[in-house]
Amino acid sequence: MSQSKQQVFRLNTGGRIDRSRTLSFTFNGQRYQGHPGDTLASALLANGVDIVNRSFKYSRPRGIVAAGAEEPNAIVQLGSSEAAQVPNVRATQQALYEGLAASSTNGWPNVQRDLMGLFGKLGGQFMPPGFYYKTFMAPASMWLTYEKYIRKAAGLGRSPMEADPDNYNHFNQHCDVLVVGAGAAGLAAALAAARSGARVMVADEQEEMGGSLLASRETLEDKLADQWVARVLDELAGCENVTLLPRTTANGYHDHNFVTLHERRTEHLSDTAPVENGHRQVRARLHRVRAGQVILSTGAHERPLVYAGNDVPGNMLAGAVSTYIRRYGVAPGRKLVLSTSNDYGYRAALDWKEAGCEVVAIVDAREAPASDWVDAARAQGIKIITGSAVIEAKGSNRVTAARVAKIDIVAFKVSGPVQELACDTIASSGGYSPVIHLASHTGARPTWRDDIIGFVPGLVKGVQACGGVNGTYALGDVLAEGVEAGIKAAAAMGHAVQTVTLPSAERLQQGPAVALFQVPHEKPTLRGPKQFVDLQNDVTAAGIELATREGFESIEHIKRYTAMGFGTDQGKLGNINGMAIAARCLKRSIPEVGTTVFRPNYTPVTFGAIVGRHCRDLFDPERYTALHQWHVERGAEFEDVGQWKRPWYYPQKRAGAVNGERESMAEAVARECLAVREKVGILDASTLGKIDIQGPDAREFLARIYTNKWEKLAVGKCRYGLMCKDDGMVTDDGVTSCLADNHFLMTTTTGGAAAILEWLELWHQTEWPELDVYFSSVTDHWATMTITGPEARKLLAEISDIDLDRDSFKFMDWRSGKVAGVPARVFRISFTGELTFEINVQANYAMHVWQTLFKHGEKYGLTPYGTETMHVLRAEKGFIIVGQETDGSVTPEDLGMQWCVGYDKPYSWIGKRALTRSDTKRENRKQLVGLRPKDPKVVLEEGAQIVLDPKHAIPMPMVGHVTSSYYSPILDSGFALAVVKGGHQKLGDTVYLPMADGQTHEAEIVSTIFYDPKGERQHV
Amino acid sequence: MSNAATFDTRTDTAIPVESPLAYSYRRSGAPQAGGPSRLQLRERAMLGHLILRGGAIVLDEAVRDVLGISLPGQPQALVQDASGERSIQWLSPDEWLVIVPGGEEFPLETKLREHLGSAHFAISDVSGGQTLVEISGEAARELLMKTVIYDVHPSHFPVGKGVTTVFGKATTIIRRPSEDRWELVIRRSFADYCYRWLLDAAAEYGVNVQQ
Amino acid sequence: MFYIYCPYCGEHREEEEFHPKGQAHIERPKEPEACSDEEWGNYLFFRDNPRGVHHEMWVHAVGCRKFFNVTRHTVSYEILETYKMGEQPSITADSQSQAREGAAVSQQEGVRA
């Protein structure tokens, strides 16, 4: 094991870290130490780790640039075990814990000696924007090969190869006011809203709430601002109406103030969630928040200046330098050159100096900067070089010097001699870009403001922005805006706010900033050293310029061509600079070039948090019938029908099997089929949709919604009905029974139950409210057991008081009485073509009735059968299944079911008009027929295409396809149902089915009824 | 008398019944966290559940006369009789859920039908199709926040309210009959999913399941 | 994710409780047999797709099961009003364009990251 290294860049005092405790961690296999309160980034800086990654495209060494979510380089792979692997973690957002193990996501064999880098350097000149598109265009067959290479080269982390041991969940949250970002503005807003009594949620992505105030030089009420933060947090924590969520990122802002928050609950403690009282803690939680009002106080990201070599480790944001010194007690270097276009950057130099390090110079792009900040720097004896900028950083693995020169911003050129200042750190500040990402998610367009040199968010209903995100940066103004936003938001939700007294802030005189984005170099951009705009995606100023020269004028296209703002970065640091460069090249203003729109998520969210508990056995509801336990115990294989689990078939132990071998599906289905045809079978049909229809107009309603007639259906009778949409296409079918004159029980297909109930309500509520009728679902109330086969009557007679005589209880009748002592409605309908009784009892009694049937059924050979046997038996009879024989383009006549269409009904029922359109009357429509394979051993493939001439050149004209196909045990032959163009006129013709394996099957078009064509068996 | 068929699906004999959760108890058990559990779940099985449909004005008088409680006319309202054993919940402007002790539903339906005569209304017995699960304990609200999308904060969900809403990837009726007690009305076919979901969500608090 | 005021339940509910059912105010012809094929085809298949104010039918599927109408802006997705079946909207494209006269919204391109 390698020796732990000293924290050579750790300051002796200051910061919000606990120096009394030491944490050890590893980065790329090397052991280091840090302290509680550190982020992985601050600990790496404390240990002098310059290179944290290799860049995406050019494989250049990269160091830490920022201190927050905007970090483009320090993206690491986390996890000490395979199952704990997490890719794409920003080191700047990862709290340090004992034993943390991190590695670079890019760089092979390692970040210090990178072989890919050699390729990047050699290839650098030859990897312009669009490189991948251009190089890997053709041949298309090579793309898979290219992709592997590109993925390996790009290397943005990897997913774990073992199951995640952790738990994640979702919370459905509702609040009056959601405050996003708990910096100065957010805390002021939260305080105001909280005091109104409104339900307030505060989400902040950092380990501690307080934002920039935690590392601020500024004072509130003459004390450092972090003391005010502590007081406010104390008060908020004590409010019952306030929920504080630290380590929680608002990642997506969706319609109507629906915001998704990603709360990391244990990721600051260890790499998998700790176990407490035998229960593994929830690692991360997704809050699905519906907020009455949203307050965006997301602050601003500092914008780096774009200069040559600005990606060499040691180039940092000025504000980040301050944060590392003041919050984490780390000075990320020894000798600083600051390049700034504004006053804000000066804080870094002052903090640096106070930390006891050397400020070589402040290089200010302004000709004559004048403000309290400039005075403070001068008072510290810091050299200020005005009208100038750092035009290039020197060094390869770490900055060694800054090349500084006078610049002419308007003419975009270097206007004076270059001097080289030796240093190891260059901090830059080009001003601030408000963090408008969330507001952008709503689709609201941001607005450019010249005075703050940035975009401020466009706002939808019910949202307010305050503080930095609004372009307001002076602390006093930020607090005032926050309070105002809090009061307004609470008031909008009906909560009056007591006065909130603002703490007094220092009023520092600020000087105006100058708009500087890309710094000119002595050489033209296209020929000079690389100036990076988007560090994560390796997009350079030259790349953008080239894109504009190649004719890309829309910022949307430039973005896609160069990859600027792609991926997990979402343009946090680079977008505005990139737009400014495009604007310069196109000689337009920034707002003319376009506005920036960002997509969710703001920062990456783990799949675990997205999925929550909707995984494994809770992935989707499984619906069970009241007899499920029996099916499970009987060893049924199950088929998914919608969300229902239906017994598919019941494989038995093979006769004579020594090792418990069970029947194959084909064997089980053959046995079940013959049992029904020869003895008696039983099916759990409880999943069929059942709708209770009551009202004096129930019959009229049925006549309008079904294609067939209902006027004369008497009490005690059942009828099969076919339902179309108004386009004339079949959408559902089922048997409806007349329970009383004003009372019907409709059955629907299993999958169609909910949709058909909604369909009935649709017509009743929107078109025919004058009909007096009500519909209620009774699907779950009844359990339905179908006994079918020649012995069905004898079996039922043993346990029922109902008169089952064939002449008094006819086919398509229903009767009520008792079955196994339980009140039951029994329907004599048949989906098998055999003598059938469908027994309906209240579901709580189902198991008793089912078991009683078996007690009595053994001697009759009672055999449970599943959906597969049901399919075979119904197909032998030519009975359709909606959704199998139909696909939304099949009319009743296409199915040969004219007998089920009442053209002369008095009402123009749903579907009628469409059935007389020329297209629905066409003679060569695909029509349902039977297919008998010439070779009885062949079972055609469902979906197989049908042709008339197998010798026809490819592509052959296809005239239809197989909709259902099975082996029939009773016929000892394969058989199929199919739709064929003009099929009803083609009985006796031979058709062909060419298969993928080169075989061509031959089949004869026959009637759809393969068994008992006269239908005598169901009437016995 | 409306021209509808009535049918008493219940029988008095000692015939065994199985509640919608019978399978789930066998499969997932009924966890007992012991004394300090922050959550209690209890199924109130075999109650009588009726869906009542019709105009509020038509139904109100009959319901008051027969059941002794008035029909809640306000959306989302839940009313109970003094004993708390009988309740009526608004489901839609022309639909109510009546829950009564098991066995009372058929006599109630019969009396209501007599009372309503030839008016247009509908009564459907759904007793076999759903069950009622009670949730109580200090973690009840948090459990519900993980479970239903509806806002269960007391300011938004006072006692005497009931709504139909989304439960995980299924649906439920959620009611608040008293300060410390919630009720979920769960469809039979979804009952096992809902039960497993609740046990999973409840595990971190410790839960006692009363059968 | 929309937050929809159900005019029957009298409160806002989450979109997950609703199903969209397409354009509102499509009336089935009173005498379908009197329609030409073209008229019937228009009734069945042709729908508006406006940029701006649109009237839609929704159903509170996991809730009161009532159908109702929603006036929604198809650009901002703002729901301007909801109203019961059989009622007419108080906000229409016409009423909106009068109210917003002169307030032209510039539609610039954007970078979608």
Automatic annotation (TrEMBL), chain A:
Record keywords: Aminotransferase, Oxidoreductase, Transferase
Domain Aminomethyltransferase C-terminal residues, every copy: 926-1012
Residue ranges occupied by any SoxA A3 domain in the UniProt entry: 529-610
Residues annotated as domain FAD/NAD(P)-binding: 176-485
SUPFAM superfamilies: Aminomethyltransferase beta-barrel domain, FAD/NAD(P)-binding domain, Folate-binding domain
The keyword Cell membrane is assigned to this record: no
Keyword Transferase appears in the UniProt entry: yes
Annotated GCVT N-terminal domain residues: 627-905
One Pfam family per UniProt: GCV_T_C
Ranges annotated as spanning the membrane: none
Any one GO molecular-function label of the UniProt entry: transaminase activity
Protein's GO biological process: tetrahydrofolate metabolic process
Family under the similarity heading: Belongs to the GcvT family.
Protein name as it appears in the record: Sarcosine oxidase subunit alpha family protein
Organism of origin: Vreelandella glaciei
Automatic annotation (TrEMBL), chain B:
Domain of life the protein comes from: Bacteria
A Pfam family reported for this protein in Swiss-Prot or TrEMBL: SoxG
Gene Ontology process terms (BP): sarcosine catabolic process
GO molecular function: sarcosine oxidase activity
NCBIfam families: soxG
Protein name as it appears in the record: Sarcosine oxidase subunit gamma family protein
Gene that produces this protein: soxG
Automatic annotation (TrEMBL), chain C:
Pfam families from the UniProt entry: SoxD (PF04267)
Chain intervals for the UniProt region annotation (Disordered): 89-113
Single GO BP term: tetrahydrofolate metabolic process
Domain of life: Bacteria
InterPro entries reported for this sequence: SoxD, SoxD_sf
MF term (GO), any: sarcosine oxidase activity
Protein name: Sarcosine oxidase subunit delta
Upper classification of the organism: Bacteria, Pseudomonadati, Pseudomonadota, Gammaproteobacteria, Oceanospirillales
